[in-house]
Each structure stands twice: as structure tokens, then as C-alpha cells.
Design brief:
heterodimer; A: mainly beta; six-stranded mixed β-sheet; four-stranded antiparallel β-sheet; B: mainly beta; 0% helix; 55% strand
Chain lengths: 113, 115
């Protein structure tokens, strides 16, 4: 069965710090990878996704993620975080062609001004 | 684009009553919608996959008779929590599958409190 691990449960950073949130999945076949963000009191929003092609994908709000197939990883990065990036971040995977998503446990990001 | 709404946004009900939650895709058609449950400070747990015109597919451990799902049109799925109990209190989130983007888009969620 597919599984997704987000090793960082809660990350606390200061504004302007660089961010990297880890995401690893277990599935041997083709996968589609997603990062969603849930701001306090709001619904999940798609940050970025990877299906194929360039393993470095850019999303909204300055976020990017790199797919490393050999490591089964899809880490989320941002060079300089802002207070407004405080939110819960979820990595999700579906087996290529499937619609059902498997979510990681989520990482709570707190940015101190 | 790709907006999904849920109604109501929150509901309080007495134990033993039934509650219906609606999920609508506002600007696209969705043959498939999903229902999740999210506990405080936890991830989303998939409850069921709602298929337009056919029966929903429930995840292991989810009682189909308790959580009734109806997907009557390409833009509407409903989740009815029957004979609700306090342990059903939770945050229920739906999503709709946008096939052209192979992506799920999420609704804002419904907070249910059963007294």
C-alpha cells in the first residue's frame, strides 16, 4: 500500500529564513505528487504538483519542490519565508492514473515575525 | 477556477439526529468527489469516494450506513451523517476531481458538533 511520510511535525522559523519540508513516499510505480497548504481557518489549496518532466516544479507564492525518484522524495522549498506562510502543509501522492490521494501527516509551519 | 463549496460551514445538532452536508463544484463538473474527515492537528482521513450515478466506495472501517453519500449530479455530492453521536463531531472536508488537471480541489470544510 502507498504511504507518505512527512518527518517534520512542527517547524518554527523566523521571517526570511529558508525552508525545506520533507516528504517521502512508498510506491514502486509511477506517481503524481502534490503539496497542499491549509492556512488557519481556510481550506486546502494546491501549492504545486508534479506529474512528469522537469523534476523541479515551481508553485504559487514562491514555493518549489524537487522530485528525486531515487530517494522517493518530493521536498518542498522556499528560499525566504514570510509570516503569512504560517500554515499546515500536506504532501500527497496518487499512483499514476488513480484519483485517490494518500496524504502525509502534515507539517505545521510557524513563522515568527 | 476550480472552486468547491460546502454547506453548511458549521452545524450543531443533537445526538440521534441526522445531518446533511453538501459539496458542490462551482465552475467544473466532477464525476468523482471525495469525502474526508480531519481531526484536530491531524491529517485528512479519506472516508469515501463518491461517484456520480453510482454507489460510493467506502474506505475500510467507515460505516456506509452511518455516512450516506449521494452523488446525484456532476456538481453535487452530499454526505449525510445518520443518527449522529458526539464521537462523530469532526471537520468534514470534500474534494472534487478535475479530470482535465488530474487534481483534487478541496472545499472549505464543515465543522460538525454533536451534543
Amino acid at each position: 500500500a502507498q504511504s507518505v511520510s512527512q518527518h517534520n511535525h512542527h517547524v518554527i522559523l523566523s521571517e526570511a529564513a529558508s525552508l525545506e519540508l520533507g516528504c517521502n513516499y512508498s510506491y514502486g510505480g509511477t506517481v503524481n505528487l502534490f503539496w497542499y497548504v491549509q492556512y488557519p481557518g481556510q481550506h486546502l489549496q494546491l501549492l504545486l504538483k508534479y506529474f512528469s518532466g522537469d523534476p523541479l516544479v515551481k508553485g504559487i507564492k514562491g514555493f518549489e519542490a524537487e522530485f528525486i525518484k531515487s530517494k522517493f522524495s518530493f521536498n518542498l522549498r522556499k528560499p525566504s519565508v514570510q509570516w503569512s506562510d504560517t500554515a499546515e502543509y500536506f504532501c500527497a501522492v496518487n499512483a499514476g492514473g488513480a484519483q485517490k490521494l494518500v496524504f502525509g501527516q502534515g507539517t505545521r509551519l510557524t513563522i515568527n515575525p | 477556477g476550480a472552486v468547491v463549496s460546502q454547506h453548511p460551514s458549521w452545524v450543531i445538532c443533537k445526538s440521534g439526529t441526522s445531518v446533511k452536508i453538501e459539496c458542490r463544484s462551482l465552475d467544473f463538473q466532477a464525476t468523482t468527489m471525495f469525502w474526508y474527515r480531519q481531526f484536530p492537528k491531524q491529517s485528512l482521513m479519506l472516508m469515501a469516494t463518491s461517484n456520480e450515478g453510482s454507489k460510493a466506495t467506502y474506505e475500510q472501517g467507515v460505516e456506509k450506513d452511518k455516512f450516506l453519500i449521494n452523488h446525484a449530479s456532476l456538481t453535487l455530492s452530499t454526505l449525510t451523517v445518520t443518527s449522529a453521536h458526539p464521537e462523530d463531531s469532526s471537520f468534514y472536508i470534500c474534494s472534487a476531481w478535475l479530470s482535465s488537471q488530474e487534481t483534487q480541489y478541496f472545499g472549505p470544510g464543515t465543522r460538525l458538533l454533536v451534543l
